[in-house]
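Hi R.,

Here's the chain you asked about this morning:
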Amino acid sequence: MARKETAADAANAGRLKQIALTYKMTRKADPKIGLVLAAVGIVTFGVFLAIGFLIGHPVYVGILGFLLAFLAMAIVFGRRAERAAFGQMEGQPGAAAAVLDNIGRGWTTTPAVAMNRSQDVVHRAVGKAGIVLVAEGNPNRVRTLLAAEKKKMARIVADVPVHDVIVGTGEGQVELKKLRTTMLKYPRVLTGPQVTATNDRLRALGDLMSNMPLPKGPMPKGMRMPRGGRLR
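And here is the predicted structure, written out as tokens:
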């Protein structure tokens, strides 16, 4: 019994520490987060307390208002923390891959299936919506990478719909914070077994890291990337 209580206490302490770290990170990008949360909590609690006095049950409604105020603060904090995190990730190499890794169940992500010497990169996600190629980098260069990747996949998954997304803030691009929502909006056209079969066929293509002919041991100094638009 004592061991269970100790484990529970440790888990609670870990969650509180994580919340504190998240708050500090959010405050750096959103200095007004403390005032916003306080305002949300006070207003929510105040509204319910006033309703409680009007109907003659200030204690019961006040308790409900306190709980709902806490819930409202948690929701606002979560959304602003997410926005701050995306703001810090925006423009960073591999940011889209991090979002894809947390898109949810039903999706299989393979990062860096294609890359060029300018470090423009294409990631691949497979789910019931089909195949989604997500590109990061210069829009003009990544279109070449996307076209080459589609042509290569067409030889083995011609019957599976393929979508492509370029992450960015320009015209025709999808902002990093909207990437997950955009992918979840695609219509589901594949069954579970079809998704598994598609992943099996694509596994033969591998990814960038598994196909690179890296030597054993430490990487030689002065090693250069191969010439050409792609690493593979």
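One quick note: Residues 208-232 have pLDDT under 50 and may be disordered.

Cheers,
M.
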